[in-house]
Design goal:
about 350 residues, alpha+beta, Rossmann fold, OB fold (Dihydrolipoamide Acetyltransferase, E2P), six-stranded mixed sheet, five-stranded mixed barrel, elongated, binds adenosine-5'-triphosphate, ATP hydrolysis activity, transmembrane transporter activity, membrane
Length: about 350
């Protein structure tokens, strides 16, 4: 077990800089997820931590040990891949035993630890099966047991759930979390599935073209995304260009123009000093609400229902704001406000704590 310090890592392929001076500290025992769209550099970063790639600049530390130039098999890491990467000609037992045999662990101890590891992942009865005789979920459990049985300092997982069906993915989330929590092992998990990231992580690093756009707890990323990219990547958000001006209440409050109305919002701390200009309103559909048009309602914008979609636990609306953009609103079942239909005139209520960030 060890903390991981990534200090100013740069990685280039040809002329293409894939990791741009990236720094990140992962405390001992924490579960961190790298999340981002295809090609943002998640796997490259994981491979630098694993030692498959040597960075062009920067350092990598496990605790205080500089492992930047240490080879993969001396880094003491466990790895789990999307495609399991099991040996097809070895049984589950022998797959899990492989790392211990390579480390010349005594036979009785190998037997004890492998049996224990297979039991932990619920495969005690399948020790003699070959990978081809197992389901995807079972194979991934073998891969997990194989990674953990060597008691690595760091566990690295590259999209380990993406080849599994939806139900198995949910089950394996719990299996993984139970095992890594019990072992107290520092884990770096790569996914492009935002729900998986939210459900599993202590902290999520959202990556954008080789940089970290935001690092935070799931609640921080969802509740206070620093920019439109993060807001749009985690959950869904209305991301609307607005013109901002200073609020009489002072920072962090800000006023902004949306579809001909002046509303109150909250500015990002970094932008609070310069409130006048172009901004971006970030409003989650579930934070907005609807009412029939009425005079003198603060923080409301007029529009018309373009589409109403009933989704059981919620109803999703697309509203065309009068001489403004479209905006999405979601009302949850049990919400007592009246229902609206296509063509209805409505007033969209935008809470005054909705955030406006730099454009
Ligand atoms: N070995 C390599 N040689 C050249 N370019 C590479 C190599 N590995 C990755 N790249 C490039 O680096 C960029 C980042 O790739 P990376 O695999 O790290 O992205 P990712 O975020 O993991 O994407 P995905 O979710 O699709 O796996 C891509 O543009 C990719 O084409």
């Amino acid at each position: 077990m060890a903390s991981i310090t990534i200090d100013g890592i740069v990685k280039q392929f040809g002329g293409n800089t894939v990791l741009q001076n990236l720094s990140l500290h992962i405390p001992d025992g924490a579960f961190y997820t790298l999340l981002g769209p295809s090609g943002c550099g998640k796997t490259t970063l994981l491979r630098c931590i694993a030692g498959f790639y040597e960075p062009d600049a920067g350092r990598l530390l496990f605790d205080k040990d500089d492992v930047t130039r240490v080879s993969t098999h001396h880094r003491d890491i466990g790895m789990v891949f999307q495609d399991y990467a099991l040996f097809p000609d070895k049984t589950a037992f022998d797959n899990v035993a492989y790392g211990l045999r390579a480390r010349r662990v005594a036979k009785p101890e190998i037997s004890r630890r492998v049996t224990e590891a297979l039991d932990k992942v619920g495969l005690g009865a399948l020790a003699d099966r070959y990978p081809a005789q197992m389901s995807g979920g079972q194979r991934q459990r073998v891969a997990l047991a194989r990674a953990l049985v060597i008691r690595p300092r760091v566990l690295l997982m590259d999209e380990p759930l993406s080849n599994l069906d939806a139900k198995m993915r949910l089950q394996m989330r719990d299996v993984i979390l139970d095992l890594v929590r019990e072992a107290g092992i520092t884990t770096v998990f790569v996914t492009h599935d935002q729900e998986e990231a939210l459900a599993m992580s202590d902290r999520i690093a959202i990556m954008d073209r080789g940089r970290i756009a935001q690092l935070g707890t799931p609640e921080e990323l969802y509740g206070t995304p620093v920019n439109a990219y993060v807001a749009d990547f985690i959950g869904s958000a209305n991301v609307l260009q607005v013109k901002t001006s200073a609020s009489s209440e002072g920072a962090p409050h800000v006023r902004y123009e949306l579809a001909g109305h002046t509303l109150n919002g909250v500015a990002d701390a970094a932008d609070a000093a310069a409130p006048a200009g172009a901004g971006v309103l970030i409003a989650r559909p579930e934070d907005l609400s609807l009412m029939a048009p009425a005079p003198h309602v603060p923080n409301a914008v007029l529009g018309q229902v373009l589409r109403r979609q009933y989704l059981g636990f919620k109803t999703a609306y697309r509203i065309q704001l009068d001489s403004g953009p479209e905006i999405r609103v979601e009302l949850h079942a049990g919400n007592t406000v009246a229902d609206f239909h296509q063509g209805d005139r409505v007033q969209v209520l935008v809470p005054a704590d909705c955030r406006v960030v730099a454009a």
